[in-house]
Structure formats: C-alpha cells, structure tokens
Write a structure and sequence with these properties.
GO terms for molecular function: hydrolase activity. This is Unsaturated rhamnogalacturonyl hydrolase. Helix 6 runs parallel beside helix 9, helix 9 packs antiparallel against helix 10 and helix 9 packs parallel to helix 11. With 364 residues, this protein is mainly α. It is globular and about 55 Å long. Helix content is 55%, strand content 2%. It has 15 helices and two strands.
Length: 364
C-alpha cells in the first residue's frame, strides 16, 4: 500500500515498461494493410462461435477494413469470408438474444443487407429490433438510456446497440433508427461524461456514476459518436460537441508513447498498466473525427501516436497483445489494475482492425 492516501499501487509498481512505438515513416500503406490482414486472420483462428459482443466487434472491424459501402459488389469481394460464413451460419441456426450485447453482430447483418439486398438479413435485423423495443430484459434509466444491467448504465451499450441501430437505419432507409442511436449517445453522455474533464466513466451503479475513466469505455462511446456523425443524424451538433470534448481530453492525457493506461487519466493505482484495445479504438475514432473536421490537426497527431504505440504490440501472428479481458464495472479504481491482459481477446482484434482501417483511409 502507498502511504498517506490509502492507495494500493502494488499492481502499478509491477507494470511492464512501455514498448518503443513504431516509427511513423515505417507505417506505409503496405505495412498497415499487411498488419491488418494478420490481425484479421488471427481473429478467425480464435474459433469464435457466439452471437455476442466480442464477435460483433471483430465482425465490425472486418467490415470496416473491407470498406463501408452501399451495396457495391466491390465491398462483398473485399469482405473476409469469415464474416458471411459467421452471420449466415447463425441465421440458419437461430441468433441468440437476451442482452443488449447480442446486438453488436447486428450492425454487420445490416451491412450485408445493404450490400446484397437479401431479405434474410433484414428479417434478422427486424427480429433484433423487435427484441430491443419490447423485451422485458431491456430496461432503461430515467433519462431513457438503455441499461447494461438493471440499475446500471454502461458506456459499452452505445456501441453494441447503437451501431446496430445506425447501420440498420442507413441500409433500411429508416432515419428514425439513426436518431434513436443519437438519443442514446446523448442520454449516456448525460450520465457518464464528466462535466469538467469531458472523459467518460465506465458506468453507473444504482443511479450513481462511478467516475473511473476506463479506456475502452471511451473507445466505445467515441466510435459510436463518429458512426452517428458519419450517418448525418439530426442530432449531429450536440453529438459533435460531446465527442470533441472527449477526444481533446483524451489527447491531453495521452502519454508520449501513445497508449493510455487502463484508466486514461493517470490514476495512481493503474499508472503504467497499458491497455492496447482502448488505444486502438480511440485512434480509429480520432482519425474519423478529424476527417469530419473536428480538431483535425490535433486529433490526427494524437491518432498517429496511438497507432504507432499499438503497432508495437501486434505480435508476429497478428495478436494484439496487452488487451485486457472482459471487464465488469469496478466500483473502485484498483479493480481495473488486476484485470488480466495476457490472452488474445476478440475485442482487441476488432478494435485493432478499426484503427488500421482508419489509418489506411488516411494514407490512400
């Protein structure tokens, strides 16, 4: 225990020093594309089988790498075969619904509908939408935010559920679904975005926000916000402002080596415990926000620094190392210091694909 303030820095004191970031000059389009291909192949080799959030993050990363399209045949030729095989297999066997995290693969189901026009994809999206609207398992906080669990609002939800609403709204020509996602972004921001710092907390518990500024929470919310802005929603101005505040705050807390701690604000009990998946997701959001004209010089500089840091943690076999395991809401900051980060995780692979895809658009 550290003296005087009751902080337990035992895990932080044993954290490994950061690896040297890649030289930006070495991150050519060819290197970015080859690395992204290794990351995707490694994700496939994991043997992912569930219709759940980790799989959804991988699928969305693969679609993003292939290039978002509006039904162009070129998109389907570029999509990794795993994407269609996974979705089609689950549609044949029956998709699992029971938690908002089950909606994450639905964004790609919507993309496949947009790319092919095949009705089975739309039918599956309609089933997911009906579940979201009418199932008793979906509870909402007083301000309308969908709860991750009854009594708790988590940042994850705006990505897992929000991207489904955005993508299906786009491909089905239903702008009201896009607006529903925008409303969720703002409802979550009202609860989770700190009014002074602009950073997002992981979640709330029994109506009280727990101000632990978890890295992946900031990745999820930032990516959902850029997806909404790219869709051109009617709430773009307020969403743009919460995103701008968030990303500038993240840039201000970014270490020179590019990768934020698991809690991004330098909290002592987690200082030096790096978390790569959040850095990848935040980098992707920064690249895309800059392309939308949001603080472009500042955010591009921070995004490239994050990507250079992430690149150093991509193993030869395509594993994004130092990705933390699935993390439930921790009531104390110390809880985030003991989450294991020594195994491959699908969300690490998927968020890395998002980062490399966004960087490739910057360079080509």
């Amino acid at each position: 225990m550290s003296k005087g303030r009751g902080l337990d820095t035992s895990q932080a004191s044993r954290s490994q020093p950061p690896q040297r970031p890649a030289d930006l000059a070495d991150l050519t389009p060819q290197v970015l594309a080859k690395t992204a291909g290794r990351i995707a192949d490694r994700a496939v080799a994991m043997g992912l089988t569930h219709w759940f959030w980790g799989e959804g993050v991988v699928l969305q990363g693969m679609m993003r790498l292939a290039g978002e399209g509006s039904g162009a045949p070129e998109l389907m030729r570029a999509v990794h075969p795993f994407v269609t095989e996974f979705v089609d297999g689950h549609l044949r066997d029956g998709i699992e619904l029971g938690h908002v995290n089950n909606l994450a693969p639905g964004a790609v189901c919507a993309d496949l509908y947009g790319a092919t026009g095949e009705r089975r994809y739309a039918d599956a999206c309609e089933r997911m939408l009906d579940w979201l609207r009418h199932d008793d398992a979906v509870t909402r906080a007083p301000g309308g935010a969908i709860e991750h669990w009854p009594g708790g609002v988590w940042a994850d939800t705006v990505y897992m559920g929000g991207t489904f609403l955005i993508h299906y709204g786009l491909h089905a020509g239903r702008p009201e679904l896009i607006e529903e996602a925008g409303e969720q972004i703002l409802a979550h921001a009202e609860i989770l975005q700190h009014p002074e710092t602009g950073l997002y907390a992981h979640g709330s518990h029994e109506g009280r926000t727990i101000w632990n500024f978890w890295g992946r929470a900031n990745a999820w919310t930032a990516l959902a916000s850029v997806e909404y802005l790219e869709a051109g929603g009617a709430l773009s101005q307020p969403v743009r402002e919460v995103l701008r505040r968030q990303l500038l705050a993240l840039a201000g807390h970014q270490p020179a080596y590019g990768i934020w701690d698991v809690l991004v604000d330098g909290q002592p009990e987690n200082r030096g415990i790096l978390e790569t998946s959040a850095a990848a997701g935040i980098a992707a959001a920064m690249f895309r926000a800059a392309a939308l004209g949001i603080e472009p010089e500042r955010l591009r500089r921070s995004a490239w620094r994050a990507l250079a840091g992430v690149h150093a943690y991509v193993a030869d076999d395509g594993t994004l190392t130092r990705t933390s395991a699935g993390t439930v809401l921790q009531l104390l900051p110390f809880g985030y210091s003991v989450i294991r980060d020594d195994m491959i995780q699908p969300w690490g692979q998927g968020l890395a694909l998002q980062a490399y895809a966004a960087a490739l658009r910057e360079t080509t």
